[in-house]
Amino acid sequence: MRRTVGRFFARHGFILCGxxxxxxxxxxxxxxxxxxxxxxxxxxxxxxxxxxVVTGTVASGLAAWSASRWxxxxxxxxxxxxxPRSLVVLRHIASVVLPLVAAFPVALAVITAQAMVTKSxxxxxxxxxxxxxxxxxxAATGGYALGFxxxxxWFTAPLVAALFFGCYVFAQSSAPSFGxxxxxxxxxxxxxxxxxYYPETMLGQAGFFVALSIASFFLLVSMVTTGRRxxxxxxxxxxxxxxxxxxxxxxxxxxxxxxTGYNSRDFVCLGDAPVLCLNRGYAQALKPLHERFDSxxxxxxxxxxxxxxxxxxxxGIGDQPSDGARSVxxxxxxxxxxxxxxxxYVQKYGGLExxxxxxxxYDNLLxxxxxxxxxxxxxxxxxxxxxxxxxxAREWQRFKGTSTTEGNRWLVDNADLYFSCEISLxxxx
Amino acid sequence: MIRATRLFARTRRWGVVLLVVVASGLxxxxxxxxxxxxxxxxxxxxxxxxxxxxxxxxxIAASLESPLRLQEMSAARSxxxxxxxxxxxxxxxxCVVLGFAGxxxxxxxxxxxxxxxxxxxxxxxALVSLGLVSYRVIGPRFGWLPPMLLVVxxxxxxxRVQQDQTQIVTMLYQADxxxxxxxxxxxxxxxxxxxxxxxxxxxxxGAGAG
Lengths: 429, 210
What we know:
The complex is a heterodimer.
Chain A: H1 2-32, H2 41-73, H3 75-79, H4 85-117, H5 126-150, H6 156-173, H7 178-181, E1 195-197, H8 199-224, H9 229-253, E2 259-261, E3 267-270, E4 275-279, H10 286-300, E5 309-312, E6 326-328, H11 335-349, H12 352-357, H13 362-376, H14 393-399, H15 404-413, H16 415-419
Helix pairs in contact in A: 1-2, 1-4, 2-4, 2-5, 2-6, 4-5, 4-8, 5-6, 5-8, 8-9, 10-11, 11-13
Chain B: H1 2-11, H2 14-31, E1 35-37, E2 45-47, H3 54-63, H4 69-73, H5 80-102, H6 117-137, H7 145-152, H8 154-157, H9 179-198
Antiparallel strand pairs in B: 1-2
């Protein structure tokens, strides 16, 4: 019993190491992509997709090394084999590629376990996972095929790995459309809660990768078979290649697009003035964000800026905000992000839009910015760090100490000027 | 002496390594100020030229593995000098060629005004050293992994280079003037040289070459 286990690891230890390494890479990227305080499946899926650059490079190199060694050692054995040569090649390619691809479900199991423990919001989308698995399959099979063809040289493994990454760099840098770039076995998309999926693109990619892998297998078989049997593998090669071309149409049709903007309105709401509704996955931010909007409302009471009903991300294409709702945008839930969310609200519904629309002079723009910064408490424009002599610096230092009631009274008196961006620096208290 | 050197050069594929070095230099010139986004959201933009030194690095490290391991173990003359010549000489050549190519990177107005010849030379030395260490310690099966991972992984972990406080993880993508990557490179270089001087031609773990 011990001897069989020992022999198993001696023969397959290398690939098992590779499998564990790949799983580790997937888990690392899947779990480290999370934004502070948030537990979202979309972050995990984005992370796993990001990892495909690394796993593709590693898998292709490992598979190439295995193939190059085997073809060197087993060349004679293949030539004189009693079994059909295609089966001999199939058996070895499966013993190399399948464990490497198995790294993905292993990693997924670990990530799912962690997601369940942290009660993560959302779910992984099946076709998206299929596309990721497809990239790993094609990277491993393609690497194997190259290693098989190049044979056992001193440069086989590093060359194949460098080639995989180099082609990725080339694809990212050059002019082809996003659709063409999506045909490369690396995932180029990020997941989000506020989107609807196009499964045709993802399944098209998965089909393309699988078909190309099968084509690579038939290419290798056609290299080792002779005579009549060769025609079968050539037919197989062309069939697989045609299937690949067909699947690629599904990808190119949508230009590789995975997502379209959409709000599922899966909200959790808090309070009554304002009513703050955030996506369920961001529920942790409800109380602190509501406090900030409360204090904002005190400063803007009696003006158009008062927040009555806020919903997350509802003013995009295809969204359906409820009556009287305004959009609030929240990327992450750290303190700075919450202040920034308030700042975005103020900038969107305050006077800043008029400044740009009517191309107001810099003096007015700066005055509106000073008011906005006081309202939100988020110093986006670095007013605090401005030198003494810079325009607006003195006015900001004077304004920033204004109390809530004083500031509110001033804002109500000058509301018209503020919203039309006609307020000047001199008119600030 | 000349014949011994020629023989050594042939077993260590100096011709191919030379080709790779020259080709990498041309690649650096061709890439110029090109930057690509490593991650899907387009955040981690890296200068492509900074990644190219991995090619000669892998070539130099992989070619050091001898195909005549058994014969060399019982060789009459010591091959230490030749191995040092291989490592130091080829690394220096790579630095000169890539450094010269790096001087074409547009400075001042390009997207990376603070990365030029100095960064490329630093990256070459760091990657060659890392490659040598990993090939010696891990063997040729996985030895090519650490240099490739050092190129591919750091921009994905730190989308903006400034986020890396240690400056060592993203050392390949730091500016010319960054001190810590410079020190780390020196450390790696010394380590690699020590390993080459100390170990013999055999690969540990008994793994075959290539």
